[in-house]
Amino acid sequence: MAGATIAAEPFPADLAVGDQVLLARSVGVTDLVIKDSAASTPKTLVEGTDYRFDPESAIVTLLKVSGLTQPLTAAYKHLGFTSMPLFTADPPERYLFLDGVNTLDGTRIRMHLYRLRFDPVAQLDLINDSFGELALTAGVLFDSEAAADSTLGGFGRFETPSA
After folding, report:
1. Terminus-to-terminus CA distance in the chain, angstroms?
2. How far, in Å, CA of 47 to CA of 136, rounded?
């Protein structure tokens, strides 16, 4: 998205002292002006007296609301940015086959899960002390065709070698 000027971004109504508002376009915000909605002469809020602004996060913290007509509006400039949406489609179903080793006795084990749907990440630590950890969780779905065969089971099966 290209940089632009926002003329009158409305804040939520009924804000109280200490409430925080994240500006809709939060990259490289400059020239922020916040006004109330008084019909005849809107009041321009004063930074440090009426609100505090953190330009790194683009969060406005209200310090005073008495005497203001809400909703407040913000006018500002912002830099351009690239948006990368996450989780925009339902996850697909997968067939999971595990060919493993039982660590207790060293025998091979095979597992089949016929219909598996991975959930969006259970935990997404963007800042951490380890590399490349992404915990995955999944739901195992019932397969009515496999359930009709007594040797398969409705969800999956384990296979171990015969003695």
Report:
1. 64
2. 45
- Report whether 91 contacts 119 (CB < 8 A): yes
Q: Which residues of 89-98 are buried (b: 16+ CB within 10 A; e: fewer)?
A: eeeeeeeeee
Reported as a pLDDT band with limits 50, 70 and 90, residue 18 is very high
Q: Is 50 exposed, middle or buried (0-12, 13-18, 19+ CB in 10 A)?
A: buried
Token readout for 37 is 């909605």
Q: Which of these, 143, 122, 144, 141, lies nearest to 133 by C-alpha position?
A: 122
Q: Please report where in the chains the tokens 């996060």 appear, as a residue.
A: 57
Q: Report yes or no on whether pTM surpasses 0.70.
A: no
User: Which tens digit of pLDDT belongs to each residue from 75-130?
Assistant: 998 888 888 887 788 889 999 999 999 888 888 999 999 999 988 776 667 777 77
What gap in Å lies between CA 47 and CA 52, rounded to an integer?
Answer: 6
Specify which residues 152 forms β-bridges with: none
